[in-house]
Amino acid sequence: MLDLVLPLHCGGCSAPSTRWCPQCARELAVADDQPHLITPRLDPGVPVFSLGRYAGARRTAIVAVKEQGRADLVAPLAAALRAGLEHLLSWGVVDTPVSVVAAPTRRWAARRRGGDPVLRMAMAATAELPGVAVVAALRTRALVSDSVGLSSADRQRNIAGRVKPVKPVAGEVVLVDDIVTTGATAGESVRVLHNGGARVAAVLAVANA
Q1: Which DSSP string corresponds to 21-80?
Q2: Integer angstrom CA distances of residue 145 from 16, 31, 106, 155, 170
Q3: Superkingdom of this entry's organism (predicted)?
């Protein structure tokens, strides 16, 4: 009866009567060899890792969190992010202590979405993870446009000079994001963090397009 009043469906495949079905959970599961090293069109100057392609249940869940208010899907996405971060730590790509910094989200977009979804994923992913702390260190300045549909060069011009530090962070850092497309945001974020004295060891994304 409750499902009739408040329809419940999987955030990955729309299967009824569940928020996240076993099939989509398997699709998002992180294998022993993941995340994979990728090469964005714009090189941010540090290794970039992705947990999978921006497709299928992974894509649908990210869109649902960002555009449809599906806060319940932060948990499975954060679990994948945590597994990827644990692998980077076990492989020696990243050492503790390490700060996790979420890639910046436009402020008006964060307000519209009820908060910054990437920061929420980062917080959930690192909860009680020894030697790992989340620092909300970056923010975008005004006049950053939506990057959907922009070319690599246009994305780079759109974000250049428009990421600003809002909280100091030093030592080793992992920059996390939901999607890496061209690498423009990652590159500008890495530049700002380096200028502030941090050493960015890697970028880790839930998906790459």
Answers
A1: -HHHHHHHPPPTT-SEEE--SS--SS-EEESSBS-HHHHHHHHHHHHS--GGGHHHHHHH
A2: 36, 35, 9, 9, 29
A3: Bacteria
Q: Is 114 left (phi over 0), alpha (psi -120 to 50) or beta?
A: left
> Residue written as tokens 């076990």?
90
152 is a domain residue: yes
186 contacts 48 by C-beta, under 8 angstroms: yes
Domain assignment present for residue 23? The answer is no
pLDDT digits (tens, 9 = 90+) for 143-188: 554 555 555 565 555 566 689 999 999 999 999 999 999 999 999 9
pTM equals 0.87
Go through the chain and tell me how many residues it has. 209
Structural domain range at position 40: 30-208
